[in-house]
Design brief:
This protein is α/β, with parallel strands linked by helices. The protein has two domains: 160 residues, no CATH class; 70 residues, no CATH class. The protein is 44% helix and 12% strand. The strands form three sheets. It has a five-stranded mixed sheet. A four-stranded parallel sheet has the order 4-3-8-11. α1 links the parallel β3 and β4. The longest helix is centred in the middle third of the chain and has 19 residues. 34% of the residues are buried. It comes from Methanomethylovorans hollandica (strain DSM 15978 / NBRC 107637 / DMS1). This is DUF1722 domain-containing protein.
C-alpha cells in the first residue's frame, strides 16, 4: 500500500509506502499493562495514519491476565522469566509464544516496542539475580520478544517509545523505516532495484558515498548472479550501511551535490543564504528538518523533477517532520 501521488508547484512529489510496523499493544492500543493501564504516546499516535500496524502483548497472549502480578527477568545460568508472587516460571511458555508469533509474522519493516518491559524492552529491562531479590543487577537486558526479534531481524529498524522522544534518533528510525518499506514494495526485478537506487542515491550518499558505488556495482553486475543472489547481496549491503546515523559532514556534502542542480539559477543573496544554511547544519546549529525546509521550495521553483523524487528531501511524509510531543 502506498500514499497517493500529489503535485506541488506543478511537479510530482514522491509517494510513500505504508510501513508495516509491530508495536507493543500497551502503547496506546489497549489497557494491557500489568497494572491495567495503557501508555499513551503522542508521537506514535501521529505516525499511525501513515503505517500498517501489527500490535502485540506477549503477557496477554500467554494468558497472564489484566491486571497481573509483575514478572521479571532472572539471570541464572540462563535467562528466565519468573513471576515472583507465585513462583511461576513462564520462560518456556513465553519462548513458545515468541517463536510462534515471529514464525507467522508477515514481512514487516520495523518495530516500536515498550521500553523496560520483560517481554518487549530492548536492552532496557531490569535484570534480577533471583526471583526474591529487591534490587536489580547493575545492568539491563532485553525482553524475550525484543531479543528474538533483534536476532531474527538484525537489520530492521527498532525503537522504543522513550527513544522516539529524541529528535535525531527518531529521524534515523523514520528514515530507515520508510526506506525499508520502499524496498519491500519495489524489489521484484532488477529494474525496480535500479529505480530504488536512483531515488535514494543522494540520501545514501549521506551515509557512505563509497558504499553507494558498491551498491551500484552490485546492480551493474546482475548478469553474473541469479536475481535472488543479487537481491540478497544488495539488501544486506544496504541494510548494514544505513544502520549507523549519517554524519553531518556527509549529509552536507549530499545537499551540496543537490544544490548544484539549481544554484546557477539563484541570485547571489539566495545562493549565499542556502550556503549559510548548509554550513549551519554542518556545524550543528540547524537540524535536518530545517535544512530540508530551506531547500525544498527551490526544487519546486525551478521544477527540478530529479530532486523532487529524491529521498534526501522527502525521506518520509512531510507531516512527520515535526513530531515533538504535545
Amino acid at each position: 500500500m502506498a500514499s497517493p501521488p500529489h503535485l506541488r508547484g506543478g511537479i510530482d512529489i514522491r509517494t510513500f509506502p505504508y510501513p508495516v510496523v509491530v508495536i507493543s499493544k500497551c502503547l496506546g492500543f489497549e489497557h494491557c499493562r500489568y497494572d491495567g493501564q495503557m501508555v499513551y504516546c503522542d508521537i506514535i499516535d501521529k505516525i499511525l495514519p501513515l503505517t500498517e500496524v501489527i500490535t502485540v502483548c506477549p503477557e496477554c497472549e500467554i494468558e497472564l491476565g489484566i491486571p497481573r502480578d509483575p514478572i521479571r527477568l532472572v539471570d541464572g545460568r540462563t535467562m528466565k522469566l519468573i513471576q515472583p508472587s507465585t513462583g511461576r516460571d513462564i520462560t518456556e511458555k513465553m519462548q513458545f509464544f515468541v517463536k510462534d508469533f515471529l514464525d507467522h509474522l508477515p514481512e514487516v519493516d520495523g518495530f516500536i516496542l515498550k521500553s523496560k518491559s520483560p517481554s518487549c524492552g530492548s536492552r532496557t529491562a531490569k535484570v534480577f539475580a533471583s526471583p526474591d531479590t529487591q534490587e536489580p543487577l547493575h545492568r539491563h537486558g532485553s525482553g524475550f520478544l525484543a531479543k528474538e526479534a533483534t536476532d531474527r531481524f538484525p537489520n530492521l529498524p527498532s525503537i522504543d517509545e522513550t527513544a522516539l522522544m529524541d529528535p535525531e534518533t527518531r529521524e534515523q528510525f523514520l528514515t530507515r523505516l520508510f526506506m525499508q518499506a520502499d524496498l519491500r514494495m519495489h524489489h521484484s526485478s532488477i529494474q525496480e532495484l535500479m529505480d530504488f537506487q536512483a531515488r535514494n542515491k543522494l540520501l545514501l550518499m549521506a551515509y557512505d558515498q563509497c558504499k553507494v558505488k558498491t551498491l551500484g556495482r552490485i546492480l551493474a553486475d546482475h548478469k553474473n548472479r541469479t536475481f535472488d543472489e543479487n537481491m540478497a547481496v544488495y539488501v544486506n549491503t544496504l541494510q548494514e550501511m544505513i544502520k549507523e546515523k549519517p554524519s553531518r559532514a556527509n549529509t552536507t556534502n549530499a545537499f551540496m551535490h543537490a544544490f548544484g542542480y539549481f544554484s546557477k539559477d539563484l541570485g547571489s543573496d539566495k545562493k549565499q543564504y542556502l550556503l549559510n544554511c548548509m554550513e549551519a547544519y554542518r556545524k550543528g546549529d540547524l537540524n535536518i528538518q530545517e535544512l530540508r525546509k530551506a531547500i525544498r521550495p527551490w526544487i519546486l521553483e525551478f521544477r527540478v523533477d530529479y530532486l523532487a523524487d529524491q529521498t534526501l528531501f522527502y525521506p518520509y511524509p512531510e507531516n512527520l517532520d515535526h513530531l515533538d510531543p504535545e
